[in-house]
Write a structure and sequence with these properties.
By secondary structure, the protein is α+β, with helices and mostly antiparallel strands. It has a domain of 86 residues. It is 54% helix and 13% strand. The protein has a five-stranded antiparallel beta sheet with strand order 1-5-4-2-3. It is globular, with a radius of gyration of 21 Å.
């Protein structure tokens, strides 16, 4: 599927479903493989049968994305994507910051991906402002290359060429698996068409570049907490309206536990899609220096593999 060899993906997916008929994730992938290999009717039929068994969010999301990518049945795709986002957002509202589980943290990449799917459907439908709203939130949360690529396309469609060029470069700078190699090459050519002066080199830079911008976007100024060098890790629970609902100390310099009120009042520039009531949990490192004070750096989503 990742290599876009959809026809070859069909037989093993069919076998997986025969072995486990209730595996909605494989059913969603099979429907997607049918559609992207040109068998739209087969995909629709399989999807209809799957939805009779329930509305598994991942399957709904995958099908919505497949339909949007194929640019077909967009009304259905919108319905599926909205259902998936609603279920995922509702699940985030059940996160208990006092008893945080790894599964809670692992919801965050899914939430970003579901927001991206809904945005991609809106983009196909020409709803550019809604697409931008979901993609901006998804990008801020994840910094996933594919999401940055989608946001750049929305910017370009809105004739924000400078913003589009910059976002394409940020997408390339992520250098992560969600951005296929063929798409990277296409983006490089695209950026050069928009901005012939753009520096797309991947070697060391003497000046501030896209990779630095990615890190800067995860930095939050906190002010002075202690009069010495110290560091500690925290989990932050964010809500719409740029609100910090909870701060949980994890480990590190014990004297920084007293930084929780300061972190609660910090501006994390939290962005949520229009009308969203989701919750976002992030892990990060509070670093303090006796010279420059303290700043909080959010970890990339993919790097968080524990709640301890």
């Amino acid at each position: 599927m990742a290599q876009k060899r959809y026809q070859e993906a069909i037989p093993p997916l069919q076998k997986a479903i025969r072995l486990n008929p209730d595996d909605l994730a494989s059913t969603g992938n099979l429907a997607q493989a049918y559609m992207l290999s040109g068998n739209l009717d087969g995909g629709r039929s399989l999807l209809a049968k799957a939805l009779e068994k329930g509305t598994f969010p991942l399957a709904l999301n995958n099908i919505a994305y497949a339909l949007a990518d194929a640019n077909v049945d967009l009304t259905d795709a919108l319905d599926y994507a909205q259902q998936a986002v609603k279920q995922e957002e509702d699940a985030t509202k059940k996160i208990d910051p006092t008893a945080l589980k790894l599964a809670d943290v692992q919801q965050m990449p899914a939430l970003a991906s579901f927001w991206d799917t809904l945005a991609w459907v809106h983009f196909r439908l020409g709803h550019l402002q809604l697409a931008e709203s979901y993609l901006t939130a998804a990008w801020q949360l994840s910094q996933f290359g594919t999401i940055g690529d989608h946001l750049a396309q929305v910017d370009e469609q809105q004739h924000k060429l400078k913003a589009a060029s910059h976002m394409y470069q940020l997408a390339l700078a992520t250098m992560e698996r969600r951005l296929p190699t063929d798409r990277r090459d296409a983006i490089r050519q695209h950026v050069k068409a928009i901005d012939p002066t753009a520096d797309l080199s991947t070697g060391p830079r003497l000046s501030h570049g896209p990779t630095d911008d990615l890190v800067d976007a995860r930095r939050v100024k906190v002010g002075r907490v202690v009069q010495k060098s110290a560091s500690a890790e925290f989990f932050i629970l964010l809500a719409p309206g740029n609100k910090v609902e909870n701060v949980s100390y994890v480990s590190g310099s014990a004297e920084l536990e007293e930084a929780q009120p300061r972190l609660t009042n910090a501006d994390f520039h939290a962005t949520f899609p229009e009308g969203s009531d989701a919750r976002v949990v992030r892990r990060g490192l509070l670093m303090c220096s006796d010279i420059i004070g303290c700043e909080f750096v959010l970890y990339p989503l993919d790097s968080v593999r524990s709640v301890n």
